[in-house]
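sorry for the late reply, my laptop died twice this morning and i had to redo everyting from scratch. anyway the thing you sent over, i finally got around to it. pasting the sequence first so we're on the same page, its 222 residues, then the predicted structure underneath. double check i copied it right bc i was rushing
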Amino acid sequence: MQLQASQYGLEEVYSPSSIGIQAVANIIFVHGLFGGRKTWTAQRMPSSSHTPQQAPVVSRSSTKPEETSTKGVSVTQSGPSSVFWPHDLLPLAIPDARVFTWNYDADVHHWTSSASQNTIHQHAGNLLSDLAYLIAGDMPEPFIFVVHSLGGIVVKDALNRSSQTEGTRLKNIAPATYGVLFLGTPHRGSKSASMGRLAYNVTVAATRRPNLKLLQALERNS
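ok and here's the structure:
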């Protein structure tokens, strides 16, 4: 099954309501620098007698063949050559949580157009605005974030802003956050980011407007 990914913003990749289960939490995946759907995607191992059986893929269609049931989740044994694990694997372990990805322009440059000039703070504001749509009342379902690299910086900024907000639904996001899983997030900055910014300064004439603000945010003592 092929899922069409949204270019930017919040994308629901699995809902417990599709199998008649009430959602008890929201799991949000936020990628890092140069990331996107590919951050959470891996290639399947070629099938052979020396490799494990292919991981089951969650099916959201009742017309798919060869379906079995694992913890109440309908799965299909035959799938594509890649595994998008927030959709294909995570619901098998946590079937009662809604799963989302949040996509944003985390590229420093685009070869055919100008890159987004948004700062970390602006990306964090956009994340909060998108999450507000998931809040139905004063007691939203718990949020759990899975973040990679720059995505961790964006989420930390968003939660900090939420905790300082008054009078809007955005204030409920930080208290409803039960956990953040940081994957490779440079909390104190990275020397590699400074080297990367130098490289982009050298090659800036060869590309459209690069967004060096994202690299600056990853530098040490930034």
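Confidence is low (pLDDT under 50) at residues 48-78, 109-114, 193-203.
thats about all i looked at so far, will dig more tmrw
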